[in-house]
Structures are given as structure tokens and as C-alpha cells.
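Structure request: DUF393 domain-containing protein, Pontibacter oryzae.
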Amino acid sequence: MTNHNLEQLQGKPIVFYDGTCGFCQASVQLVLEYNSQHNLYFAALQSGALEALVSKKKRPDPLPDSILFFENGKLYAESEAVLRLARHLDFPLSMLSVFRIIPLSFRDFVYRFVARNRYKVAGRNQSCLLPSPEQRARFVG
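Returned structure:
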């Protein structure tokens, strides 16, 4: 993975994902494929990049072990992270962001159900995905 200068990443949207989760890794692959602007960066939660890039007061306690999205100095979790991330994807996936009209409590209920069962669906990996050389520059940590 590429080690970026932290100053270079200020203001860049960063997806923090569970690097041991097969479902999360597949989701990162999907995002890489449908983010033609190449403006998203990625870091496994296990990499320590979150702690280095986001101040402790901006992080939830305890940290969720699935996905976080850092954009414009703010850290989003659960369904809000996914739907804000969707805005950076190509059509038709960008349309997922319209689901923000659904109340947050219901969205997060659905998100937590999927998150609790993600290892059953896609398993657990002991290693992170290996991005292509072109994609590697977008990984932090």
C-alpha cells in the first residue's frame, strides 16, 4: 500500500473498511470499478490510518468494524457513510444516495443487520485485497 503524506489527503474523501471482511473487500472492488473520477481513497480499519488522519474527537467510540467515510472533515458511519459514498459513484449506483430520505434510524437498522451477517455471507479474510498497480495509489496505510 502507498503511504501518503497526511497533508496531501486533507480534503480528500476516504473510505475506511474492514480489511478482514470478504463482503467489505468486494464492496471496495465495486467502488473502485464505479468511481471513474478516481477521487476516493481507501484504508483498512486495521491499518492505523484512521487514527492518523481523523482526530479522536471526530471518531465514534467504540469504532464500528465495518465502514466509515471521511469527507470534508467529517466522519460518517453506517448507512450515512454508504449513502454519502454513493454520490461519488457512476450512474446507476450514484442513485442510491436518494435513500437518504429514509429516516436514519431505519436505514441504520437495515445497515446493522447486513453488517452483523456479512461474515456469514462473504466470510473472513486474513489478508487485505491486492489492488492493481493503478489502484494502489488510492490506498492509504
